[in-house]
Amino acid sequence: MNGESEVRSSWMDDVRCRSDANGMPLTFQRNQSKGVAATYHFNFTGAEERGATVTIRDQKLEVTEGHNGKPDIVITADSQTWLGFLAKERNLIWALLRRKIRIKGSPRLLLAFGKCFPSC
Fold first, then answer.
1. What is the CATH T-level fold of the domain 3-115, as seen in this structure?
2. For a tag site, which of 3, 17, 109, 118 has the least CB within 10 Å?
């Protein structure tokens, strides 16, 4: 696999590994997702351009490629900035101010999403 293909698939692999599809250790924190019922549409830009739907409901995580269903929030993010946010390496407020992450919908849903994952 060449470096470009690895970069393009890494964001989905990073998010998918949290869904525990194969019984892998979870990084998605079910207890932290209590009370979250939302569909997130992601538009990733930059080195890893992709679209994805992430649904958190009933303390479960579902990740699909592309946009499915009606979103509660739409997030457009530079892919590297987004991965840094998930890893708690990038400040959300700074990313929003610099427009590296843009949202349409309640910022509370974005904060709830971040709390569902521990720092790496």
1. Nonspecific Lipid-transfer Protein; Chain A (3.30.1050)
2. 3
pLDDT at 20 over 70: no
How many other CB atoms are there within 10 angstroms of residue 115's CB atom? 11
Torsion angle, CA of 13/55/43/109, rounded to 10 degrees?
-120
Q: Give this prediction's pTM.
A: 0.74
C-alpha 50/C-alpha 23 separation (Å) is 25
Q: Report how far Cα 119 is from the mean position of its chain's Cα atoms.
A: 14
Query: Which two three-digit tokens encode residue 79?
Result: 């892919």
What six digits make up the tokens of 57?
Answer: 């409901």
Choose between 9 and 17: higher pLDDT. Answer: 9
Residues 6+ apart with CB under 8 A from 94: none
**pLDDT at residue 77 greater than cutoff 70:** yes
